[in-house]
Design goal:
Blueprint (H helix, E strand, L loop, with lengths): L4 E4 L5 H6 L8 E4 L3 H9 L3 E2 L3 H5 L4 E4 L4 H9 L4 H4 L5 E4 L5 H13 L3 E4 L2 E2 L1 H7 L2 E6 L2 H11 L3 E8 L3 H29 L4 H15 L21 H25 L4 H13 L11
Helix pairs in contact: 4-6, 11-12
Length: 288
Amino acid sequence: MSNAVGFIGLGNIGAPMARRLLQVSGGLVVHDVSPDATAPFAEAGASVAATPAELAAQTGVVCVVVQNEQQVGEVLSGEQGLLAGAGGDLVVAVHSTISAEGAEALAAEGARHGVAVVDAPVSGGAMGAADGTLAVMVGGADDAVDRCRPVFERFASLVAHMGPTGAGTRTKIARNLITFASFAAAGEAQRLAAAADLDLGMLGEVVRHSDRVTGGPGAVMLRPAAGEMATDDGLRPIFEHTASLGGKDLELAAQLGRELGVDTPFAELASAWLRAALGLEPPPGSES
């Protein structure tokens, strides 16, 4: 079993992740379709493989950070893919965000060749990759994840093993729902603020500052369940207070929108769903 680590895909996030592996025990072997991407790594002491198959023959754990599911499939199963060059005990970690079903299919294909595939999407962007503070959400067998963990910990400060193959990808999907729904709500807030002739740059400063203090949406994700909480749950009084404040503020936002002629669908939707989201009552329209 080789102690070398392989890395495929040296783009915006992949390159800073891979740079944190340059001093890994056993050495780093990289591959990218662009020679310009691999050149700095060669200068820093990494080996460069001409194909994924060549890289697989030299490594024990391979990280893959390419653009989409089709590219992941080509890297793994193509004529010169990882499976074509894999020896025994290879583990492939797919960091690209693909479908959960795709991750399961890749794992099944890998298993037919004696290769373990884990899905390990990341959160934290290029900045997190550069400073080693990414979150890695991993799906796969315990032994395969354990093999990968020392590698992941070089570029991540949180490695969360979420379950079998596909669980890491499903976690990333849920996490990104928060991100992009928040972006849409932020756009609504900016339109409202612009109509009120407020400084949008300073509003952004306020949001980033307060999220650093409060933890943002993650601050309410404290429960092990998503349904309605028990009446004696210790969090209930806190969340009741949160819902009271939130309901008032969401109504004020909707009222301001009406006054300024700005549609506020996210404020209205959040107002309708806030108590259910906090586990204080069933979702609107459901049976108790």
